[in-house]
Specification:
369 residues, alpha/beta, Chitinase A, domain 3, four-stranded antiparallel β-sheet, three-stranded parallel β-sheet, 18% strand, disordered N terminus
């Protein structure tokens, strides 16, 4: 490695450390008198709040380790503050790379904090929900097995896959399948492994649970083939009481994920997302209701007969804009959601039939919620 390369790596490392330290300093600001001072670095205060924040992110610390860990964290904060001071003196915080890095880190911190705060509102799963999951997944619990698998990954011409599937499902042994591969010069890899049920993807587990020892199944996509034989299995059931903590965690994670996805969908519905021309294909390939964007004659509905646009019925959506084609259409129907701030631009050329369905509005005498 040349001296120039070493110098460049050191510079990049120092820049990264400086950016991280600058972000830490920016995010850990505090009001005087609210927190207790732990140290000062050239007049800049480092507080116990900063130390405790770092300690909270350390997993598995025992009470007797807290003092020593706190001292180490304080030394880290002092080192970072020294780097921040020097970086600011040389105006590294004004360099384009540093500005972009701090902006990206800020976005990540704020978005993660918002998602985590929303997820905290999710209630813990009920006893009934956990029992239902236990009963619905007997392959994981009551009928749990530990599987010894013989697997083959191969590239098989697509027109020969039905014959291979017939052999496997007809009861041919792994040795027979290997001979079949070799006779046709099919490249393959074989491996044997042992996995308890919880280490197998749930969709695959359901198929394996229905497969008797000594039998196999075939999965394929294109010319990629995955042959799996259950060489042997051992029944190892798990009781509800033992499985309950894992079930609770699984259901909680799933519920938080659903809340996060719902919040993101609501934000996308209420926001207006406009793609640059070079990303128009990305916009067109997105889910129909996953994003809100203008619909124009160059996008999804060019000069159609019988155009129909249905907006998502989301009570939190607002600011939705729909632009219909500028060409003549024989029939246009727009169904608006129960929302505020929807704007519809009808075709510039006259259409033979345009129907706009507005959501029902409360009567003036109706009590306000």
């Amino acid at each position: 490695m040349t001296h120039k390369n070493i110098t460049m790596r050191r510079t990049a490392w120092m820049a990264g450390l400086a950016c991280s330290a600058l972000l830490l300093a920016a995010c850990s600001g505090h009001k005087k008198g609210v927190t207790q001072s732990a140290a000062r670095v050239d007049g800049t205060e480092i507080t116990t709040t900063q130390i405790n924040y770092r300690l909270q992110r350390e997993r598995g610390l025992r009470p007797e380790q807290m003092d020593e860990a706190g001292r180490k964290v304080l030394e880290q904060l002092i080192d970072e503050q020294l780097v921040v001071d020097r970086a600011e003196k040389v105006k590294m915080d004004e360099q384009p790379d540093a500005v972009q890095a701090m902006a990206a880190a800020r976005r990540e911190v704020l978005s993660r904090a918002y998602v985590e705060q929303a997820a905290m509102t999710v209630p813990a799963p009920t006893e009934q929900q956990m029992h239902a999951y236990f009963d619905d997944n007997d392959a994981l619990f009551a009928n749990r097995r530990v599987y010894t698998l013989q697997e083959y990954l191969a590239k098989v011409p697509e027109d020969q896959i039905p014959a291979l599937r017939a052999l496997v499902e007809g009861g041919k042994s792994p040795a027979d399948i290997e001979a079949w591969f070799k006779a046709r010069s099919v490249p393959f890899k074989a491996q044997q492994s042992t996995h308890p049920a919880e280490q197998i993807p749930l969709n695959s587990l359901k198929m394996l649970a229905a497969t008797a020892d000594g039998h196999g199944l075939v999965a394929s996509g294109g010319n990629q083939v995955h042959v799996t034989y259950v060489t042997s299995s051992v029944v190892a059931p798990v009781t509800y009481d033992k499985a309950k903590p894992a079930i609770a965690q699984f259901l909680s994670v799933g519920a938080r994920r659903k809340v996060t996805e719902a919040n993101l969908a609501a934000l996308k519905t209420s926001g207006k997302i406009e793609y640059a021309p070079q990303y128009a294909a990305l916009a067109a390939s997105g889910p129909a209701l996953g994003t809100t964007r203008d619909i124009d004659s160059t996008a999804q509905i060019p000069a159609a007969n019988g155009t129909r646009v249905s907006l998502p019925a989301t009570s939190t959506s607002s600011g939705v804009q729909v632009t219909l084609p500028t060409t003549t259409t024989s029939s246009v129907q727009v169904s608006l959601p129960q929302t505020q701030g929807v704007r519809v631009s009808l075709p510039a050329a006259p259409a033979s039939s345009v129907e706009v369905r507005l959501p029902p509005q409360p009567s003036p005498d109706a009590p306000k919620k």
